[in-house]
Design a protein that fits this description.
alpha/beta, Rossmann fold, 6 helices, two-stranded antiparallel sheet, globular, eight-stranded mixed β-sheet
Amino acid sequence: MIARVITTVVIAATTIAITRAQDVALEYRVKAAYLYNFVKYVEWPGKARSSILICIAGQNPFGDELTLLIRNERVHGLPLAAEVILEPRADCDVLFTPKTSNVPAYLRTAVGMPTLTVGETDRFLEQGGIVRFVAAGRNVRFEINPVAADRAKLRISSRLLQLARIVEPESDER
């Protein structure tokens, strides 16, 4: 009888975990992994910080995926944290703006700040964003605007730049 109860609990817990993982689209599981890895290849200017904060603007397409991915992780000796923000804030080290957010408002707040801005809208780089996710068939790739990164005083590793498509938009609205 006890074995049957334990088996039932294990099956139920497994089913809940699988369902929860499937709630987040594969595209956003991949993007969450990219965000985590971008942090490893970016250097921020020398301000004292206690953690590296990854902000998600507005609606969170990651579910718990990003939080679970970075839990107990450290980069550059600092713990990582993720937070959904409903208003633009200046204290984000990384700012992901999903297509459902007010991208221009969030980018305006990041002007002059050492914030790695990451987005997925068509004109993101032209609006002054630094990294843009692009769909390539069933894959997710990314583009980097090094001029915007320089303006934010961020140093992006050459290893990351080699993996990206480099884009220097003609009209940078920032």
